[in-house]
Amino acid sequence: MSRSRTKRNDVDSAAVLAALGNKYSAEILCAADTPKSAQALSEDVEIPIATCYRRIEELVDAGLLTCEGRRLSDNGRRTNIYRRTLDEIEVDFSDETPDFSQKRRTEAKNRLQEQLSN
């Protein structure tokens, strides 16, 4: 299992810590192991859709979640589909500013996860 050590310049530590510190963010990231709409994430985590959209926006801004495209919903509307960008993150507070180690998701893992969930 390899970890890619990020540099402080690669990650906005304040945005990552703020996003992870918000209620439901970790649950949304866990639920977003496969591509899901905001509605599906809201249902999985059992939170109001407005709260889910706010958390999604924060997680996307922090680089922890990505919009993978759009799909038609059951109602025929185009909706954004989200997936987390990493599987693990470690925060080191021993310096003046936090330093992050993370295990990013590979495209191969994304494809395998999709095959297993179908």
From TrEMBL:
SUPFAM superfamilies: Winged helix' DNA-binding domain
Stretch list, region Disordered: 96-118
Ranges of compositional bias, category Basic and acidic residues: 101-112
InterPro entries per record: ArsR-like_HTH (IPR011991), WH-like_DNA-bd_sf (IPR036388), WH_DNA-bd_sf (IPR036390)
Protein name listed in UniProt: ArsR family transcriptional regulator
